[in-house]
Amino acid sequence: MSASGGTRAIVAALGANLAIAAAKFVAFLFSGSSSMLAESVHSLADSGNQGLLLLGGKKAQREATPQHPFGYGRERYIYAFLVSIVLFSVGGMFAIYEGFEKIKHPHEIEHWYWPVGVLVFAIIAEGFSFRTAIKESNPLRGNESWKDFVRHAKAPELPVVLLEDLGALVGLVLALGGVGLALATGDGVWDGIGTLCIGILLILIALVLAVETKSLLLGEAAGPEAVVQIEKAIVDGDTVTGIIHMRTLHLGPEELLVAAKIAVQHDDTAAEVATAINAAESRIRAAVPIARVIYLEPDIYSEKDATKGPDREATPGGPAQPAAH
């Protein structure tokens, strides 16, 4: 769901940004507005960003190889991180440079109807793109706030498009304000101030994207709900009596690794333990379908060993985690 929804949102944003970039550049040529130039570069950078997200999604679908045995799911995180760099360098830094230049050397805006008309068109087009991103995000967001959704989403495409579209809409309002004040006062400095504000906005959004995608690149665990479901699925109360310790890791937005040391009865046979592990793996996949790589290690839980230290990995056989209810 997240992959298809993310692709639809990216394609909608790409189409809108290409049309807007062309319109803004034409408006810049006729009016000489630096806000229009900064906004055209912004839209062009956004179009490149959507291209990067589509490329990352395509590359992530490659089959696992001996050199990359867990597949290429994290390609989506890498390309999302590249988006934040492009937005920062191409969009934000260029707008700040252009804004300072226009403040130092202001000139009157010519043919005012070009930038105003294009900005109104761009706001409508970006609004359509933003609406599509919101619509595709809602099924995944559930009851989460938008802030939590952006912070906790494992699929990077929708948060990236949402923040880009939001930044684009706010940037357009800033550009319209700068152009409007420049026309009302006859002072082109306001156009430069609007451009400068756009650059600051883009850099702030780029930093947020960089922080969030960096966390995904480093490797994030499954969400709390998924962890509870996995714990319930592992313990059957018969052969598997508890979880000594467990780790989860997202290999990609739709692929989860689960590794756990499980407690079994001391008198169980090897065949009984193997059967219990196979059954636990089936229950995990039924409860959390994206748990595709599962490693379960049986051990005998020992209360005596569990008292030797708080480090779960260093303490053989314990301490066991209580089964989730």
Descriptive account of the structure:
It is a single chain. The protein has 10 helices and 3 strands. With 325 residues, it is mostly helical. A 3-stranded mixed β-sheet has the order 1-2-3. A hairpin with a 2-residue loop joins strand 1 (240-252) and strand 2. The relative contact order is 0.13. One of its GO terms (cellular component) is membrane. It is a multi-pass membrane protein.
Helix content: 55-70%
- Given the structure, what is the number of helices? 10
What is the number of independent domains? Answer: 2
Under the CATH scheme, the architecture of the largest domain is Up-down Bundle
- N-to-C SSE string, H for helix and E for strand: HHHHHHHHEEHEH
Which CATH class of the largest domain is shown?
Mainly Alpha
> How is the largest sheet built, in terms of strand order?
1-2-3
Largest sheet: 3 strands, mixed
- How far apart the termini lie comes to 28 Å
User: Mean pLDDT score, rounded?
Assistant: 83
The Rg value, from CA coordinates, equals 26 Å
The global form is elongated
The counted number of beta strands is: 3
Strand-pairing-aware structural class = mainly alpha
Label this structure with key terms.
single chain, 325 residues, mainly alpha, Alpha-lytic protease prodomain-like, Alpha-Beta Plaits, 2 domains, 3 strands, elongated, disordered C terminus, monoatomic cation transmembrane transporter activity, transport, Cation_efflux_CTD_sf
